[in-house]
Amino acid sequence: ENQQKWWHKNVIYQIYPRSFYDSNGDGIGDIEGIILKLDYLEKLGIDVIWLSPVYESPNVDNGYDISDYYCILSEFGTMQNMNELLLESEKRGIKIIMDLVVNHTSDQHPWFVEAKKSKDNPNRDYYIWRDPVNGQEPNELKSNFGGSAWEYDENTNQYYLHFYSKQQPDLNWENAEMRNSIWDMMNFWIDKGISGFRMDVIDLIGKDPDHLIKENGSKLHDYLQDMYRNTFGNHDLLTVGETWGVTTENAKLYSDPKRKELNMVFQFEHMQLDKVPGKQRWDLRKLELVELKNVLSKWQYALDQEGWNSLFWNNHDLPRIVSRWGNDREYRVESAKMLATLLHGMKGTPYIYQGEEIGMTNAAFTSIEDYIDIETQNIYKERMAAGFNEEEIMKSFYMKARDNARTPMQWSDDKHAGFSEGKPWMKVNPNYTSINVENALNDSNSIFFHYQQLIKLRKHNNTLVYGSYKLLDSEDKSIYAYERILKNKKLLIVCNFYEHEKEFCYPITHHSEVEILISNYIDSGSDIKNIKLRPYEAIIYEIS
Ligand code: TEU
Ligand code: CA
What we know:
Blueprint: E1 12-15, H1 31-36, H2 38-44, E2 48-51, E3 55-56, E4 68-72, H3 79-91, E5 95-100, H4 110-115, E6 129-130, E7 150-153, E8 158-161, H5 176-192, E9 196-199, H6 220-230, E10 238-242, H7 248-255, E11 264-266, H8 289-302, E12 310-311, H9 321-324, H10 332-344, E13 349-353, H11 374-385, H12 390-400, H13 437-441, H14 447-460, H15 462-466, E14 468-472, E15 479-486, E16 489-496, E17 502-504, E18 514-519, E19 531-533, E20 538-543
Helix pairs in contact: 10-14, 11-12
The structure holds 1-O-alpha-D-glucopyranosyl-D-fructose and calcium ion (CA).
Subcellular location: Cytoplasm
GO molecular function, one term: alpha-amylase activity
Main location: cytoplasm
């Protein structure tokens, strides 16, 4: 058993402020809007809010391009509103963690504005500049948003590196002065009373562009240990790194407490099982449940003793899970609850992305004009130019575009889903007339109350928090079943991942007490030797 930490028992709720709630009718969600919905979040029972970026930004990548780390974007409010949010959350026992985007800044950040001026500018070395090679890009590194990772600057006849859009130049972590400026900034937010950081693409900061190394560069962990010592090391904060390229082996480097780096990382291996291996996520493939079981179990086993898992299906970059691996048509409620049960039954800290708790679905945009995201727009141009079939491109966006997660939160069946009095910055999903918070709160069988119950369970059930994980029937193609074991206590989690009925048999030799802790059907079977699982049926049993 790990040394116990407050965030072991916590459930975290991610807010994408632009799409959460608009308090002043300009069509853009804002901080005041979050404050107005804190009672709703308290009712859900979550402990921590992860706030996607609210800093000053030209919004090329919706705030992941920061031009001033010390200032709130005026569309979202003021620093005064931010202070108020911290205060009002605290009153409700809710902590706030902030997004830390320090792999890159906006090209409007004063550091970059300065750096561009000349080769000998004091800020030049805060970014990564290289001479042309034979009049071309220094090498073949690619941007994650399409095209080369190098952008030519005519003024100084050099290229700068950007792993995202060209308006997001990568910071040069080799520069000690730059690192110190980041520590100062982090300490400013820590002193303000935030409870931690979600660290954007943190596995990229050790990059070695001359050797084509993006992720997991050799100095990455030195930088993180340096960060720990200079910022949050003396505070009891929550730190979670976003690491697309992490393996079970190096996850321990980040999250083994002895190493003094981070508390946990987001691993994305399970979220990449429905793409063609080695290709981009636009190259679609059907999910095989057996593979999902393999991958999630591998992570559960690997971090059982050292490190800690983060558990998630959704965030602002991923399509809606109920549309992706559930069934957003006739079994939307059942499948959303099944996916929630499957995830929240595991060992780790669960994350909920806004709208997941009411089973919001993909955006269902069919026209390229409806997509706002810079990634989608860039990939569209790139793939069209490369001769891909347009229908195929649009199909992959329909399944995987980031805007699927970014449509405005559906609060009620009022105009614009009750999100705003004015025209929302992004189209509302037309299904808001039936899928919305108001309806969810009026229905004791709603997905919302299922999440509420799962969150509550975690607060009181030590087996759920600390029990070791054990996969059952690894080869079964339609049932995901596993145990959680702590001393003489056991939980059995059984989930039917599909819409056909399926029998599940659990061998018990001696007489045991069996209690159903939660289920998505009102009359689930309690004879665990033989359970007939209905479509998407999911049950957590406690066996003692
Ligand atoms: O995302 C990192 C990232 O590489 C993926 O999200 C990628 O954009 C895509 O979704 C998967 O191929 C983080 C943020 O979460 C994202 O919103 C930002 O756009 C990105 O970093 C740059 O800051
Ligand atoms: Ca607003």
